[in-house]
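Project standup — Tuesday

K.O.: blocked on the structure for the chain from last sprint. Re-posting the sequence here as requested.
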Amino acid sequence: MKIRSVDCFPVRIPLKPECQMITALGVHDHSDYIVVRVNTDEELFGVGEATVSERWSGETVWGGVAILKHVLGPGVCGCDPEDIRSLDLRLNQLSRGNWFAKSAIEMACWDLRGKSLGKPIYELLGGACRDLTFRSRYSMGAYDVPRARQRAAELIDAGFETIKVKVGGAAEDDIARVRAVREVIGSQPRLVIDANCGWNVDTAIQCINALEDCRLALVEQPTPDGDYGALARVRRETTPPVMADDICFDLVHAQELIRNDCCDVISVYPGKNGGIQKCRDIIELAGSHGIACSMGSNLEFDVATAAMGHLIVSCPNLQIEEYPGDTLGPAYHRDSIAVNPLSIEGPLTTISNAPGLGIEVDWDFVRAHPAPD
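H.V.: unblocked you, prediction finished:
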């Protein structure tokens, strides 16, 4: 089987008003992503998804479509979609970076491989080590205190046991928001904060130590991208476990985090890491050094969320029981691109045991909701 062509479909779907995301990077109230279809000479096809974000990874929906149509897509034509290692090598030869665009093609090839063999992807990754239904945390935007209090109460009522609060802005506002959420949710639920690189090192240490009485379960990416020394200093001078996210896109980044004793946990997900296999490589490297991994998110649609789920189900070092991940992206959106959407009920996401990713794309919906030029 050989890849014959790669089709791209830029899609825009608004977020539900209550799920609007506000972070140190700005406001996310709609998602412009790319659904990818990899076609073969045997009439079998696979689907992938590029959850591009100009504020986060630097990739845009328009740039993603361009590089998929003119560089990555043509460059993989003739390749064997079931030889994932060779495919990843080819994608790296074709372009530097462009993690999410590459991941969409690689994801689609895993989908193809699973369909060809009649197996779900988690079986191809070594089999299930946990149930197909798993629990996520909820990522809450950097809202003002009254809105944060209301949303926190709603999330507890919905059954969430871990709530992540976005910070990374003015220290006094961040501290007030986190304190308000802890007051509302009580002492038992886990409380996580995520600065998305928004603090400098001194502000990060100041805020984290000021929140000691809030018993933070995890501090995610408190310092700027690329500054391994700053992240290591936060880990030395504060108490909660530290998770690296925005600073870790590939295996070399993971190696630097380990070498510099930067973190207790690494956040991974297939889009950010360039594909399912590359993501798994980071998970295994971290595990070999005693560092846990958790599943991050860019508020994916069903296709990429399914890819995340197959990794969670199959990778023991994705320690979601201790550090719950983010696999709720489809539930943040008003509409679904799938004929058979993932089952998401409150904090619980369930992936399918159907071949491949287990997601059937609603192509009519995708074509009818294009991201604007």
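K.O.: great, moving the ticket to review. The mean pLDDT is 97. The CA atoms of residues 219 and 242 lie 5 Å apart.
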